[in-house]
Amino acid sequence: MSETISSYDKALEELEYFIIANIYKKNSKLPAERKLCQELGISRTTLRAAINELVLRGLIVKKASSGTYVAPAKIKRNMLGVDSLSTAMREGGGIFKTIIIDQSVIQCNKQISRNLHITLGKKVYCTTRLRYIDGTPCIIETTYLDAEKCPDFDKFNLEKTSMYSIFKNIYNKKIVSGKEKISVTYLTKEEAKMFDTEENSPAFFAVGTTELDNHERLEYYKLILKYDMFKFTIKTSGEQ
Known about the structure:
- By secondary structure, the protein is an alpha+beta fold.
- It has helices at residues 7-20, 33-40, 44-56, 85-91, 110-116, 163-169, 189-195, and strands at residues 60-63, 67-70, 75-78, 96-107, 123-133, 136-146, 175-186, 202-212, 217-226, 230-233.
- The strands form 3 sheets. A 6-stranded antiparallel beta sheet has the order 4-5-6-9-8-7. It has a two-stranded antiparallel sheet with strand order 1-2. The protein has a two-stranded parallel sheet with strand order 3-10.
């Protein structure tokens, strides 16, 4: 007895094949719904369900302002590494830029105190940046620094200079280790607007700290990473 394939499964399978086989190239806009429905012999309801599943799989991305696109190649983020995001972007071969969303001086609260190991009320530099790769906004990064460890940090242009380069070359501080926790979140209206996508779209949420060679905490950070543009890997060496 032969089994029939549902129109949904057929649409899902064919769309996935077109993407993996590079018939629909990365970053390209998908054909119009009417054309896809005619080519696949399915209804718009079935097509939209298949596209939503491929969005969850990270193969397709919806842009609020212009339609549905094949997702770009994913950027690998090594969970055991301590390199800066800009270093990872360079290694991936992408063209990146940074826009400062907010740069302010705040007082240390309980959450920051717990993560930076500093006392409540101390002066802290808080910087939120929107990072782009190949013209696509894909990371919202908020960083907290103890002002005592990095005096006058707010005078640097973080749209032009790597934060880790400043740590190393100006403050003579070398990051040697870090901890990071990864989870899945859903974009708020404001976050979705920054990413030019739909509200409640899935995203990666990373929170972590970095440490110096004397085991002092230097940086506490939070990252929101566009779901369709990143994958996390663990790269180890044979040395123990």
